[in-house]
Every structure is written in C-alpha cells, then in structure tokens.
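user: can you give me the structure for this one chain? tokens are fine.
assistant: on it. calling the predictor now.
[tool input]
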Amino acid sequence: MSEEKRALQTDQPREITLWYTPQSEQGKEVVCYYEQPTPLPGKRWREAALKDTGIWREAAMKEKKRRRWPWIVAACVVLAIISAVVVSLLLHNRPSRNLPSDEDAASSIVDIFADKNTSIPRYQGESDLRLRCRRDHDDVLTAGEIYAKVCPSVVTVVATTNHYSSVGTGIIMSEDGYILTNAHVISGGNSCWVALYSGVTYEAQLVGYDIDEDLAVIKAVDANGLTAAEFGDSEAADVGDTVYAIGNPLGLELQGTLTDGIISAINRNVKVDGRTMTVIQTNAALNNGNSGGPLINAYGQVIGINTLKMSRSESLSEATVEGLGFALPISTVSFVANDIIATGSFHGYPTIGVTVVSVISADNVACVGVLEVTDGSGAAKAGLQSEDLILAVNGQTVSDTKDLLAVRRDHIIGDEITLTVWRDGETFDVAVTLQSDR
C-alpha cells in the first residue's frame, strides 16, 4: 500500500455530504442523511496527512500554481470592465436613464383607449416631412435578413410618470429621429426617452398623437444619421402572406424579440371599447410591450403598427388568447402621421370628394372613373363631374383606384393636387384642394 493511501486512512472526522429535506406543511426538517466513510479531500487535513510523505513537495508546487489563476482571472475581469466603461462613455456620452423598476409594466396591448393627461414636452414638426410608402419591393428575404434590416430602425420607447414607466416599441421613419408608436404607449407620460438597438439613448419629445387612431409621433432630440425603416404598401397585402414583428414583449427583459406568422385577415373591423378599428389581423405573437412596433412583410417593409391582441378575459389587464393580434395598416397610418407631423394633431382623412371606380376607357386605357361628386367638396368646387375619367394625379398616371389612394396618401388636408381629366374627348387639368372627411 502506498504512503498516500495509508495517509488517507488516518482517523479523521466524518462529515455529512448529502441530506434530504421534505416539502411539507409541518416545516422543513432533516429526516435522513448519508455519512461519507472518509472525509472528502479538504485542504487542511490533506496537507497534514501528506506533509511527511514524498508526495508533499509536488503537491505543494501544484497548489501554488493553482493559486495564481484566480488573480489572473480577476485582473482580466477588471480590465474588461474598465474597457467596457470607457467604450460606453465614448459611444453614448449621454446621461444615464432610470430603467423601469419591477413595479413598472410593459405598455398594455389591450387597454388602448385610456385618455390620460400627457405632458411630455412638445416638438414642432416639419410641415414638408411626409411618411411615404413604396408600392414596389425587392426580393423576398429570410427571417435573419429581415431582422438585420429592420432591427436598427426599431426603438424601445419608455414614457415615465411620477409613479411608473410604460415600456413600448417604436419604429424610426426619418434619419433625424421622427418615430412612430402607439398613443397608448405615451399616454399619461410627463417625459419620454428612446433606446436604439445599439443601446444609444435619446430624450424624446412629443410631436403629437391621436387617441382614437391610437397613433403618436415622437422626436428623438438632436438625433441624426439614424436608420429609417422602409415602409411598404399595406393595400397590397393578402391573407396568407408571411409577416414578422419586432418589439419588446413584456418590457425590457425581452427587448428586440422577433416573431413570425401570417396575415390572417385584412380590413378586419374590430370593436374595442365601443370603437371600431380597421386593422390587419395576424397570428404573429404579440404581447404587452409590442405596442407601437412594426409588422413587416417578406420584403423587409413595414406595413403595419402592432397595436392590440384579443383577450378572452373580461379584464382589460389580461391578454390570454393566442394567435389573434392586430396592426394598424400603413395605408391609414400615413394619413394620421403626416397630419400630426405637419400640424401637431389629426384633423381627419384628406379627401378629394369623389366616388370612383377602376375602368377601361374607349381608347382601351386603364384609368379611374368618377361615379359621384360630393357636394361642397374640393372636387365639386373644382368643377369635376360624374363620368369624368381621371388619367393622372400630379403628373403620375393612375390606372386604378389604388393608384389614386397612393398619391393621396402623401398629402394632408389643405394640400392642392392636380388631376388630369378626360371629358367628352378633351383632356384638361384641374386643381383640387383636399378637405377633411369629418
């Protein structure tokens, strides 16, 4: 028998190394245990047992080397922390934010029409800035490519009050920091800030919002060079199309989450708190905190603003039904956003004042036919008549009603547009001032 083995058999105190604690209403009590026949290798008794053997010197040398590693690791950790702090200061150079506490919650995606006193500092928007949507698109992207393309345009929106913070999502629409989100995300706030996917933060001011449309526009203060999202045509979406959502479900802990699904319905009329909203229905997972985030098509274009999900509970604070999410279509969001940016509030949808239908003219040209002209409208004042054919708007050819809607989407109430009209064999231009539908 070796000297080491004889040393290990020296009479040493035995120790408890395993016990079982039952879970009962009578309290926790140790009811059984296992005793190790010989002690586990511990530093003190092992040194004493081996000190007089030939093994001691070699063991001592190994122990000395092992002692160095904690100090080396500690030094590396300290260096890494210092480097991270320096990089953070260089990148951000901004005051730290007070992150929401455990008592704060992700912005509700169910209770969306709570009209609270909102006192976030105001920002005067630019009257010539417009949210424009592309009707064309590039190739279909993979989920990973879509995340890489859109994530830099998604922000975390934190609206704070005297008592709590509301966490939601937003989407960047311009390089200088105009951001779309839901009105219920910022409702009741007295200050607001946003965080980019990179971690850079900005104070945000309120350009304007509309509770009924559940849309708000905020402006990141002193921002420039941001990555603006590409907005697509929600009117071109069909049931069954693949869609994606990026947001902050349940708050900051799951920031930047990507979910996917399909479009379950388009032009879905949903009644919420006595109001009817026309929305895109999707089964992409949406939860509290996704509010204000983008619904994205397969080309990486934002076609909706995620707003609510269906709940089977009568309680507005719960959202338990899965696969029934809804987004505001960009086709309507653009009208609201453009008016808010230009005037600070939403005054209604701009209308030409005609009822139209897609037709083919006698010359076999696809165009838009006027069925009816509304009395007192801009079209009536400009002299349009029923059976007129609209060939172009502002020089852009229109071949169907969607083309006319796409052009109108870039304008606000009070803008003047030029219609190229064919009537009784003659073609002429008329100027029409857009009026509110209210």
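assistant: here you go. The first strand starts at residue 16 and ends at 20. Confidence is low (pLDDT under 50) at residues 4-56, 82-96.
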